[in-house]
Amino acid sequence: MSLWTSAAIAAATGGTASGDFTTTGVTFDSREVGPGDLFVAMTGAATDGHRFLDQAFARGAAGALVSQPSVHPHVLVPDTMAALENLARAARARTAAKIIGVTGSVGKTGTKEALYAALERSARARARAHRSVKSYNNHTGVPLSLARMPAETRFGVFEMGMNHAGELAHLTTLVRPHVAIITTIAPAHTEFFRDEAAIADAKGEIFRGLEPGGVAIVPYDSPHRDRLIAAAMPYAARIVTFGLDKAADVRAIETMRTESGGTFVTAVVGTRELSFTISQPGQHWVSNSLAVLAAVDAVGGDLALAGLALAELGGLAGRGARFTVAVGDGQALVIDESYNANPSSMRATLAVLAAEPAARKIVVLGEMRELGAGSDAYHAGLAEPVLAAGVEAGILVGERARPLLNALEGKGDFVHVADAAAARASLSTMLAPGDAVLIKGSNGVGLAALVAGLRSGEH
């Protein structure tokens, strides 16, 4: 299906078209180019996308967005980053879709994916739902995700992240959501914020882009609830809270672990009661599911189909995906939480490991980054949930993880290694049949490579 014509791209960006072409996708990574894509030649301190134009067209690009003349079909603009934002604005302006924006310190990608699955199944949206892929949630990922949105979209779900104040204030003006969700507030990127209240303020910027009549969805159980509500009040026509407290607008009134490790939930959405199963284990997924229901209800989606979608939602790579690997004459379970980490998400996933039946529980925990002066205390503070989960052995990766090693001294078989490669080598000697291993750390540690090696049988 046609996404952009060269004429439409030129009109949206103020550029000059050279060649008549039609695109079916948009990307700025030449390695991801597929047939029919628009390749955006981004320029930056580390690289220049114009160097990869030949590669992009060899892979099937239909046209390019460039700031330098090219022999390939293109639209020439002064600044490709500014042009990508303008293309995003044009995509947002031409659609009648209901748009949902999602942010939070923890859970935003999972909530975004669950929302997409729920809305995709809605009878009213059978034709088209759209969401940002992967974790494209920053100053380049958000406009790219918008530019990829077809005009016929009925529901759009966009993840928005930040690590500095002011970032969401800009992104939300591009997304212009009808519904804005904050999943939770937790110590993440604390290197750049004075305290959690400042993080709450920065997350609350998402409400500034709400469309007239928009809905703000806020975690009732958060200690920053009132602060978030105050941030939403000038911009939202309606504020909906979710949580376990009986005063929340969307709340769980009963939860029960299922035999498969998920959770059976009975929830109240306004005046309605709904029972459903969450395939993903953990109390944090109960909270995520309530935010999903609140958003589906706010945009007029089908709550019953949303419940079915939650039951069928598989584990996301780097965020809870599970698989087994052959070890000796048996198997071991791998829980892949390798994408990112902060103190709150670490505790949540360790609680999931605690409920896992296994002969032995192992962790591979990478350092948590961007925690500032509190880094040592945050790392040492993980000793309690590690031990509470019944972990007997573990590999701690990166210099910042040393305080956790010190806190665990004499309490199990824990070792410290410098990097992901060393962790992989150490795990190969540690893993035994019947083990369950949780792998989690900040994305920059590179534990995804360790997971990939386990998946391929290289351990």
Topology at a glance:
Blueprint: E1 4-5, H1 6-13, E2 16-18, E3 22-23, E4 25-27, E5 37-40, H2 53-58, E6 63-66, E7 74-76, H3 80-94, E8 98-103, H4 108-121, E9 129-131, H5 141-147, E10 155-159, H6 167-175, E11 179-182, H7 196-203, E12 215-219, H8 225-232, E13 238-243, E14 250-257, E15 263-269, E16 272-278, H9 283-298, H10 303-312, E17 321-327, E18 330-337, H11 343-354, E19 360-366, H12 375-380, H13 383-388, E20 391-397, H14 402-407, E21 413-417, H15 420-430, E22 435-440, H16 447-455
Parallel strand pairs: 4-5, 5-6, 6-7, 8-10, 8-11, 9-10, 11-12, 12-13, 13-14, 18-22, 19-20, 19-22, 20-21
Antiparallel strand pairs: 1-3, 2-7, 14-15, 15-16, 17-18
Helix pairs in contact: 3-5, 4-9, 4-10, 9-10, 15-16
Question: Could you explain how this protein is built, in words?
Answer:
This protein has 16 helices and 22 strands. It folds into three domains: 4-79, MurE/MurF, N-terminal domain (Udp-n-acetylmuramoylalanyl-d-glutamate--2,6- Diaminopimelate Ligase, Chain: A, domain 1, 3-Layer(aba) Sandwich), CATH 3.40.1390; 95-312, Mur-like, catalytic domain (UDP-N-acetylmuramoyl-L-alanine:D-glutamate ligase, 3-Layer(aba) Sandwich), CATH 3.40.1190.10; 321-455, Alpha-Beta Complex (Protein-Tyrosine Phosphatase, Chain A), CATH 3.90.190.20. With 459 residues, the protein is α/β, with parallel strands linked by helices. Strand 15 (263-269) and strand 16 form a beta hairpin. It has a nine-stranded mixed beta sheet with strand order 9-10-8-11-12-13-14-15-16, sandwiched between helices. 52% of the residues are buried. It is globular and about 65 Å long. The model has no long low-confidence stretch (mean pLDDT 92).
